[in-house]
């Protein structure tokens, strides 16, 4: 069933685990993530970037696909359909399309503008039963055209945005979208702890979940992170499995060129990495 992410993340804060947000790109991605969540009795958040939404022809198509798939696959674990790094306009489109959650990424606006826009969207989302995520500071690197400088969030600004009534908050703490460079300094746990002190039990979100070492993930969860976003790692697993299939010449054997066969190893690979992340985040059997 599609639900807002509010309840599942409240439970995650209380239970000291995190729910994974896995970004989707197409039918295979969506099916692999939903089945893995169901098989492991885990709540899950399907993330849709604006670019991926466009690629899948539009947010209405995405919402219709996800809803139908949940019904036809008998998915009973809580599933949130969430706009990732949304613009102001994108949030309205997703609210209309039937998403259950949005992220308004106003991190590149001056803080007063971020506050004004976030506050308006909080009201609209809550009236319609959606959850809303906001961002302070920025996530380094690039994701689907969203480029961030990677500045560390100011805990006082986090408190200001938290007080607007957002349901969960992404704070930039040195995390980066995409692969981490060899000279990465790691997460800024002081900034995370200070933010946590000011915002209390509001769930925190860790973006750039690809490749963050397990000990850092666990420490982040102990400091209030209840949602962790993973995108690139699923793409890399899909790429590697697909490459292997082709390099082994399997696409040239019999009906190996059939897309249902060609895409199968990538599909299975996504299931493997999503399960691994659910284990690491502690969300298994928490549905
Ligand atoms: O918003 C989505 C993410 O923050 C995913 O980051 O591609 O580094 O896993 P990632
Ligand atoms: Zn992100």
TrEMBL record:
Signal sequence, start to end: none
The keyword Metal-binding belongs to this UniProt entry's keyword annotation: yes
Coiled coil start-end: none
CDD domains reported for this sequence: TBP_aldolase_IIB
Keywords of this entry: Lyase, Metal-binding, Zinc
A GO biological process held by the record: fructose 1,6-bisphosphate metabolic process
Domain of life: Bacteria
Binding site for dihydroxyacetone phosphate: 178, 208-210, 229-232
Enzyme class: lyase
One MF term in the entry's GO annotations: fructose-bisphosphate aldolase activity
Residues annotated as catalytic: 84 (proton donor)
Cofactor: how bound: Binds 2 Zn(2+) ions per subunit. One is catalytic and the other provides a structural contribution.
Lipid metabolism as UniProt keyword: no
InterPro entries reported for this sequence: Aldolase_TIM (IPR013785), Class_II_FBP_aldolase (IPR050246), FBA_II (IPR000771), Fruc_bis_ald_class-2 (IPR011289)
Annotated Zn(2+) 1 binding sites: 85, 177, 207
Residues bound to Zn(2+) 2: 105, 135
E.C. number: 4.1.2.13
Reported cofactor(s): Zn(2+)
Listed name of the protein: Class II fructose-1,6-bisphosphate aldolase
Gene source species: Hominilimicola fabiformis
Gene: fba
